[in-house]
Amino acid sequence: MHFIKTFVPLLLASLAASAPLAKRSLLTDIASVSSDVATLTSAVTSFDGGLFQALALLVDFDNLKSAIDTATTAADASAALDTTDSTTLTAAVTALIPKILAVIADIEAKESVASSSGYETDVLSALNTLRNHSGLLFTALIAIADTADAATLTTYSAQVYDALTTAIADY
Q1: How far is 20 from 78, CA to CA, in rounded Å?
Q2: Which of 63, 106, 81, 107 is nearest to 27 (CA)?
Q3: Any long-range contacts for 54-57 (C-beta under 8 Å, 24+ apart)?
Q4: One digit per residue, pLDDT tens: the chain, 171 residues?
Q5: d(Cα 150, Cα 43) in Å, to the nearest integer?
């Protein structure tokens, strides 16, 4: 009986402490996605078709994919968010969307450079990968958000998907 009186409160305290950590981790992962989007933006804008720039660009695409996958894993592991946490998460994504759409536009603008330097297929593959993996992330985020935020995230998901689909068509 003494064991139960001691163990149950410790277990409950442990579970309560772990929930906010998962939410903080998810926000940290979204911040990593944002950082990798900024790095990719820099690589895209400076890309002039050179081999080393192409390699760096492809590494940055892969780093962004990895950050998206990490955030997806955190979202998949998270329980449904309360209204406050859902709003915080949605605000972080809201700040990220213009950056994502801008880098996609920058990638589209570099299509002729990628094509003339022989990297069109590589960039096309990276765009397809990002479209698929960002879709998985949005699906995971929508699943844990509250109803109002889920609607907002659904809109953002469609915007990113449509922008990537347009960029893919341009390549």
Answers
A1: 10
A2: 81
A3: 54/117, 54/119, 54/122, 57/119, 57/123
A4: 554 444 444 433 443 444 454 566 899 999 999 999 999 999 999 999 999 999 999 999 999 999 999 999 999 999 999 999 999 999 999 999 999 999 999 999 999 999 999 999 999 999 999 999 999 999 999 999 999 999 999 999 999 999 999 999 999
A5: 32
Residues 129, 168 contacting (CB under 8 angstroms):
no
3-state helix, strand, coil in the chain (%, to 5): 90, 0, 10
Q: d(Cα 142, Cα 13) in Å, to the nearest integer? A: 28
The whole-angstrom separation of Cα 19 and Cα 58 is 35
**Sole residue written with tokens 């981790």:** 25
Q: Where are the domains of the chain?
A: 20-170
Residue pair 100/35 in contact (Cβ under 8 Å)? The answer is: no
**Rounded to whole angstroms, how far apart are CA atoms 2 and 108?**
66
Question: Who contacts 1 (Cβ-Cβ below 8 Å, separation ≥6)?
Answer: none
